[in-house]
Design goal:
The chain has twelve helices and six strands. By secondary structure, it is of the alpha/beta class. It is 37% helix and 7% strand. Strands 1-4-3-5-2-6 form a six-stranded mixed beta sheet, with helices on both faces. The protein has three domains: 5-181, Peptidoglycan recognition protein-like (Lysozyme-like, 3-Layer(aba) Sandwich), CATH 3.40.80; 200-272, no CATH class; 283-326, no CATH class.
Length: 327
């Protein structure tokens, strides 16, 4: 019986560009950060919803993302052919895993694990993901102990978050893949991996605000001591005027923004500031110091992201953008 089924999404510029891989050096493990959504839900999202959503958005707000294979407790689905690029692991400026430089998207295959409604990984999802990597290791001659990496290892994105906060679970996962590949019976995971470690008992989270600056509604709710389950998110969505909540990325971001500002507006969540040259008064030099494109075109995109309208590169606008980026 095949480990996964193929249900390729249509060619499009946002999630399946059709570019060919130049090599398949490693497999990259991700998590969807979308509790309750199945592998089939992600076929629809990347093949239809994301495309339609991006087509309605300004260029500066469009999202380019995908992965090759999505795995849940019932099935694994390949949505992009394994000889094509997925937009999965080339975010940010940090670059680890030398074998995948300069762009991991052209040199690897990405696999996403789906989460249960409570944010956990079902044991069957973990076991099926192991089987996916066993098959990929057979196909491409990988050594699971060395050739399976996390998204985090490449770009320092907190993905898969449960196995970034607890790296031993990822090590154990690779060992089980290796055991299966070599015909041995692997040890079972001790318990399903949780989406986020519980806060220490002595550190009671604030009921409002929180210190979390990322873009996961689940992690945000946990940071403020709130129930992050799908059912509670659905209640919060209805309370804040978000109709027909299904846990889509767009709905989750809208809910996150509303909760952060008390439900009064859907302003874009403020990105976390990056460290860089704190002395320069030049936005161009600052962007270069954090590894960002300093061209006018990119500065226009950044200005729009930070709420600076009609950016034309004036001194006042550059100063405002520099201040916002420094936080």
């Amino acid at each position: 019986m095949p480990v996964w089924s193929n249900d390729y999404i249509k060619l499009n510029k946002y999630s399946r560009p059709g570019s060919k891989l130049t090599a398949r050096r490693k497999g990259v493990l991700h998590y969807t950060a979308n509790p309750g959504a199945t592998a089939r839900n992600h076929v629809t999202y990347f093949g239809k919803t994301l495309i339609e959503m991006n087509d309605r958005l300004p260029a500066s707000q469009r999202r380019y993302a995908s992965a090759h294979i999505f795995v849940d407790k019932k099935e694994a689905i390949c949505i992009i052919p394994l000889n094509e690029v997925a937009y999965a692991a080339n975010d940010g400026t940090y670059r680890g895993v030398p074998a995948l430089k300069p762009n991991a998207n052209f040199l690897s295959i990405s696999v996403e694990m789906c989460q249960e409604k409570d944010g956990s990984f079902h044991p069957d999802t973990i076991a099926r993901t192991e089987d996916v990597f066993v098959e990929l290791s057979k196909m491409y001659g990988w050594n699971p102990l060395n050739d399976i990496v996390r998204h985090y290892d490449i770009t320092h994105k907190n993905c898969p978050a449960p196995w970034v906060s607890n790296g031993q679970k990822f090590i154990d996962f690779k060992k089980r893949v290796n055991a299966k590949l070599n015909g041995k019976k692997p040890n079972k995971p001790s318990k399903p991996a949780q989406a986020q470690s519980k806060p220490a008992a002595s550190k009671k989270p604030s009921s409002t605000g929180g210190s979390y600056t990322g873009d996961s509604i689940v992690d945000y709710l946990k940071s403020v001591g709130k129930d992050s389950s799908f059912s509670n998110r659905a209640k919060l969505a209805a309370k804040h005027g978000i109709k027909n909540y299904k846990g889509t990325e767009k709905q989750n971001l809208e809910l996150l923004n509303k909760l952060r500002v008390g439900g009064k507006t859907s302003a874009v969540a403020k990105p976390a500031a990056k460290k860089g040259d704190q002395k320069t008064g030049s936005i161009v030099d600052y962007l270069k110091s954090i590894g960002e494109d300093s061209s006018l075109a990119n500065r226009k995109k950044l200005a729009a992201k930070y709420g600076i309208k009609n950016y034309s590169g004036t001194a006042a606008q550059n100063t405002a953008l520099l201040k916002k980026m420094r936080g």
